[in-house]
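User: Show me a protein chain along with its predicted structure.
Assistant: Here is one chain, sequence first, then structure tokens.
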Amino acid sequence: MTVPTTTQAEAGKQFSSVHGGGASIASGKQFASVAAALHDLGDGASIAVGGFGLCGNPEACIRAIAARGVRGLTIVSNNCGNQGQGLAILLQQRQVARVVCSFVGGNPDLEQQMLAGEVAVELNPQGTLAERLRAGGAGIPAFYTPTGAGTVVAEGKDVREFAGRPCVLETALRPDFAIVRAARGDALGNLQFYRTARNFNPLAAMAGRVTIAEIDELVPVGALDPDEIHLPGIFVQRVVHVPEHADIIEFRTTRARPAAGP
């Protein structure tokens, strides 16, 4: 898919200028809403999505894509939602044609549509999926890995031996769009993720040709120490401040409080 280009006015962008050292830098990355940030996402688009299960999901972006009603999507995600939540919403609305993932368990919507032949599923070893995204962002077109050699994963792929081990050629992923969620970020797209919610988010953001980040807390440019930035803004084209999220817990496990002592 070719991502259409629009002027800044057409996109409805909000401009923020950052003054420092006598210089003025117009970012042009901040949007008023996720709907505006996703204005050029159409039928047949490929989308890398951050998150692991429901942890670190870009919830607002997913809802906006569902509301757009676009069809024939290719989703690159660890497991394309879970328990009927997250990306599973797009599956329920029959908006997805293909999924590149590493896990199907816990997602009855994907399981049913895969078995019915309604959605094509390309399963990847989890580390391979992560590296395919990272390689796409790093400009590496393909790489060899020993993971999957001698299994169905290697079928139809080039296999060569390195240091006495057979290795499988895997190609990088470079989807049209990426949607991610960050705990903190600025108008230039510098992002910081919350603990394990970092998961696939930086990798998805790197890989996308157009990356949209929904940010829990939008901070002024310069507020993030360089050592605190998990992903530099060079990988992010659009940012949206989204302070409220459902943060659904997939499996809540609790135990009885221990009895009070004497």
